[in-house]
Task: inverse folding
């Protein structure tokens, strides 16, 4: 078994750096993913960050967001929480949901999130937890 590739003290510093990027969720995901690549699991990262494993998993999951989603997130055109759910979808369904969101086809974020969860269930992917 391979141990941690980054010592805990450095992991704590990386986590603190990630938390400073709250306004840039994709950057935050990239920084947290350094710890995942260094053999820290989501529970360990969550403990370092003082949050839940689910929050860490959803944040790192933003790295699967297609370019349209990252651009929309950068421009504040899509809420971070919705983007986290959208990132669980296939690229094709991410594109569909993002275009529909940007076009204003959903009543609100909750409506869009429920739609995304239905797609996640259809695809059999993602966390699909409320």
Result:
């Amino acid at each position: 078994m391979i141990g941690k590739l980054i010592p805990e003290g450095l992991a704590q510093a990386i986590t603190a750096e990630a938390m400073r990027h709250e306004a840039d969720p994709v950057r935050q995901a990239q920084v947290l993913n350094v710890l995942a690549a260094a053999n820290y699991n989501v529970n360990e990262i969550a403990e370092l960050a003082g949050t839940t494993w689910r929050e860490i998993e959803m944040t790192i999951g933003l790295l699967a967001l297609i370019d349209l989603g990252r651009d929309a997130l950068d421009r504040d055109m899509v809420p971070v929480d919705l983007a986290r759910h959208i990132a669980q979808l296939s690229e094709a369904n991410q594109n569909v949901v993002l275009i529909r969101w940007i076009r204003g086809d959903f009543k609100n974020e909750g409506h869009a999130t429920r739609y995304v969860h239905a797609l996640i269930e259809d695809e059999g992917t993602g966390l699909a937890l409320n």
